[in-house]
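Q: I have 306 residues here and want to know how they pack in 3D. Can you give me a structure?
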Amino acid sequence: MKVYTSIDQFEKLDNAVVTTGTFDGVHIGHQKIISRLKEIAKLDNGETVLLTFFPHPRVVLFPDNDDLKMLSTEEEKISLLDHYGIDHLIIHPFTKEFSRLGSVEFVSNILVNKIGTKKLVIGYNHHFGRNREGTFEHLKEFGHIYGFNVEEIPAQDIDNVNVSSTKIRNAILAGDIKTASLYLGHLYSLSGVVVEGNKLGRTIGFPTANLFVEHNYKMIPLNGVYAVDVSVSGTKYSGMLNIGHRPTIGKSEKSIEVNIFDFDEDIYNQKIIIYFKERIRDEIKFPDLNALKDQLTKDKITASLL
């Protein structure tokens, strides 16, 4: 997959099969769009192009509303889209100036003149251009004018629930990792650098790696204990992770700590990736460290079975 950090880096194609959107989380609805892109490209001997934006438009348009958390960082999104087989990924900077681009200008200047769109595939209820004025009906009209075909993919549903990034965010905030993973079509992940902690865990037989998450816009699941997989230098291990304030030892700052099973290496300052499998329990204040150790022993058995 070729990655471009601006539309200006992209060289216009003869037969571009295109989609556009934020694609946060690259969930099953997004995957359906990508699958259709690839089908069309294969039939028409075209190349798939995904145009997305960074930062998220809401961050730029509503800067005072800082509660928006994302399912994927830019790096994670690139990795996911590479995995699902896109040929060209354009991550164009979203600015207030760009947001003023009208729907006609967006289609003519970006989709047609810059990319060379011949087929456009969009998700259900997709809007684009200044004030989200552009709709699927507009795209069909523009297609006749500018010589491209457009196709809308219906919303994907599981158990009669339409999947969306918002619903996945809500599930993660509620600690409902199983539902989030079902809607995503893959395990929710969190990456960060291992930093030094107070090293209390090793004194009770459960050493932990303390995770520093660089991007403050990345969504952190609900406090509690989780069964996880941990990727260290490309190798995956099972583990259990705690998100919270460690009330048993009287700590107040929030931390993310993972105990990696059958692992004993120095990984300070290394980047690791956490894959959430299931939430085991709430964070609990125990009467002493022995009670905490007993519970962690039970948690490890539970996590090992998931």
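Q: Anything worth noting?
A: The mean pLDDT is 92. The first strand starts at residue 2 and ends at 4.
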